[in-house]
Amino acid sequence: MNSVIDTILSHRSIRSFTEQAISKEQLDTIIRAGLAASSSSMLQVVSVIRVTEPSMRAQLAQFAGQQQYVESAAEFLVFCIDYQRHATINPDIQAGFTELTLIGAVDAGIMAQNCLLAAESMGLGGVYIGGLRNQASEADKLLELPPYTAVLFGMCLGHPNQDPELKPRLPVDVVVHENTYQGVDLARIAQYEQHMLDYYSHRASNQKQATWSQQTSSKLAGESRPHMLPYLNSKGLATK
């Protein structure tokens, strides 16, 4: 084990922050760590918007489902797919292919994880805000995004004001398959369910009695932001 692995395995989502600011040097390092991430074909199709205006923070918190920590975090970053740079250089690019939208989403996830790990290595904490996609068009308008550029998710960063327990993940042997896809081992899932129940019943806040299967079944039973495809299409993305 080393300090990098320790940081990765110690990850918890932090939603409560002190009033202490993140220094310019820390933020610069976090962003540089993000820029060092892998990029498909070196296309570099991600832009990050640092939101510092309090009124904009308040609106974004509302768009994200009244997530107050969007306002209270020391820093709030919005990660966007960005092919506008490329279209400015060459108006003939074909940004509408779904593969290019996937590349943008993958690259943004890789870049953001680099940023978060860098922040955590400094003793900072953060949480991803996928809820921005609840009202993606409204967030897009507020951030004045041009064509071929779209909101993906936000990230709160700051000095932690909480110390939550580690949330159990699925066992390695359930997630990792060798050579071909292996069927689901329901016995292993049942063991994990009990682990999650124990975690939820003993954690310091937001205790609940719900299995992982119950929560995921509920999440996947209905529509999941059906407005996202029209939104992406309106930005010239995922049109073909």
TrEMBL record:
Residues 208-219 have a biased composition (Polar residues). Keywords: Flavoprotein, FMN, NADP, Oxidoreductase. Residues 8-159 form the Nitroreductase domain. InterPro entries: Flavin_OxRdtase_Frp (IPR016446), Nitroreductase (IPR029479), Nitroreductase-like (IPR000415). Residues 208-240 are annotated as: Disordered. Belongs to the flavin oxidoreductase frp family. This is Oxygen-insensitive NADPH nitroreductase. The gene is nfsA.
